[in-house]
Amino acid sequence: MISVSPNPATAGEVVTISGGCDRTSREVPFGIYAPNGDTIAEGQVQLGDLGQYSGQLTIPVGSAPGTYTAWIDCDSEEEFTTNFTVVAPPLEEPPVSVTSTSTTTAPTTTSTTAPTTTTVARAATATPAFTG
After folding, report:
1. CA 43, chain centre distance (Å)
2. Which pairs with CB-CB distance under 8 Å and at least 24 residues apart come from 38-42?
3. Each residue of 38-58: pLDDT tens digit?
4. DSSP 24
5. pTM (global) more than 0.85
6. What is the tens place of the pLDDT at every residue in 4-42?
7. How far apart are CA 130 and CA 132, in angstroms?
8. Domain 2-87 carries which CATH code?
9. Domain residues of the chain, as ranges?
């Protein structure tokens, strides 16, 4: 018996492969086959006193979506397999970039000059008197 969790999974995610074998108390190989049959992840897992096991493997980053196979080799005559699905990772929202432009105008200085009144004193001019 064998199961995979989570199912479906995404590339780069760790999956738990668990179940039970008829053999007990020894280490056995387990792994994941890609859709083309290549082994893309593998390791060793310890069987418990009753043959139970649970191990974790990472689906390689960049693995294409599709049907993958988890396997465990309980002994040379007993290999359990189960299919599970690898899906595309969720689309990430692009980061939002906000650019703020601020224009600062230097204050305009206006010089106001108060009107000035200049009084010019005129010299008195004498108009010559004609005698005549």
Report:
1. 29
2. 40/68
3. 999 999 999 999 999 999 999
4. -
5. no
6. 999 999 999 999 999 999 888 789 999 999 999 999 999
7. 6
8. 2.60.40.1930
9. 2-87
